[in-house]
Amino acid sequence: MKIRHPEKVNNPINQIKKKPNWIKSRLLNSKEFFNTKTIVNKNNLVTVCEEANCPNITECWSKRHATFMIMGDTCTRACAFCNIITGKPKPLDPFEPNKISSAVKKLNLKHAVLTSVDRDDLDDGGANHFYEVIKETRKNNPDTTIEVLTPDFLRKGDSYKKVRPGSRYFNSLELLKNVKIINKNIFTKSGLMVGLGEDKNEIFQVMDDLRSAKVDFLTIGQYLQPTVKHHPLERYYKPEEFEHLKNIAKSKGFLLVSSSPLTRSSYHADEDFDKLQKNRINQNNAQSIS
Q1: 40 with 60: CB under 8 angstroms?
Q2: Are 104 and 137 in contact (CB under 8 A)?
Q3: Torsion-angle region of residue 54: left (phi > 0), alpha (psi -120 to 50) or beta?
Q4: How far from each other are the two terminal CA atoms of the chain, in whole angstroms?
Q5: pLDDT tens digits, residue range 189-219?
Q6: Which residues pair with 148 in a beta bridge?
């Protein structure tokens, strides 16, 4: 049996805390769930929904929503909190752009979300492959909006010219600022995962940093420990705490904030994109009046 996380074998055992009653997954439409699963499987696609063991998979797939994870199912990094397989990845699939484009069409998606594993084994970190998938998807689905949740392409030189600059925290903030300088109409988005031992001041500082970069959309969700070998969960935040964080973030000027125990970066992505567009129109109208 292949070990999913060989790099974590020697980690100490961190017992998984029992989930509180406010963390529950929902199956809304079993027929649509299996229709989505069939399309994903027939096209030999990978989704972050499955690989990251997302708690929202039944709800999202029942709505025919799936977040495609390109460049394989194996990541070259070993983040302490992540459930994605770590190891040596397979070569890129040259037919993946067509497969993704076809699946988006079959699912009739009005908003498609693309993410990926980190591919430090590739000279450009997979930036060109990202570009090809986006280009093919847009060509065959002209009315579909596309959202990309990219890796950081760390130490990959000018890969950012295709998708995103290789960076750490402050360089990422600089990227977000530059996006707005290049095109102020592009929506930018970032997310926080809580429950790993952070304190409130650290959360508020990240919010301020993101607002200084003019980030439009902030997501805040609960960390759920995948296995006993992963980073220990320090505590579960209560729903009212997420609501409090949401109110704080909104007061800081984010155009949209999604904050709940089950919030993930691509959760309700199509609905949130509609809200972002409406909120921007309202904001522009308000500024015109004033």
Answers
A1: no
A2: yes
A3: beta
A4: 65
A5: 999 999 999 999 999 999 999 999 999 999 9
A6: 114
Higher pLDDT: 161 or 46? It is: 46
Tokens (6 digits) for 43: 């096209």
State pTM to two decimals: 0.85
CA angle 221, 67, 176 (to 5 degrees): 65
- Residue 36: Cβ within 10 Å count: 24
The pair phi, psi for residue 246, each rounded to 5°, is -60, -45
In tens, the pLDDT along 258-283 reads 999 999 988 888 888 889 889 888 88
For Cα atoms 266, 184, 178, give the angle at the middle one, nearest 5 degrees. 85
Q: Which two tokens stand for residue 66?
A: 């799936």
- Look at residues 93, 106, 89 and name the one whose alpha carbon lies nearest to residue 42: 106
pLDDT of residue 53: 84
- Residue that wins the pLDDT comparison between 175 and 189: 189
- Find, among 274, 264, 252, the residue nearest to 222 by Cα: 264
Domains of the chain: 25-166 (no CATH), 169-290 (3.30.750)
Question: Which residue, among 84, 7, 93, has the nearest Cα to 47 in the 3D structure?
Answer: 84
Q: Work out the pLDDT band at 103, boundaries 50, 70, 90.
A: very high
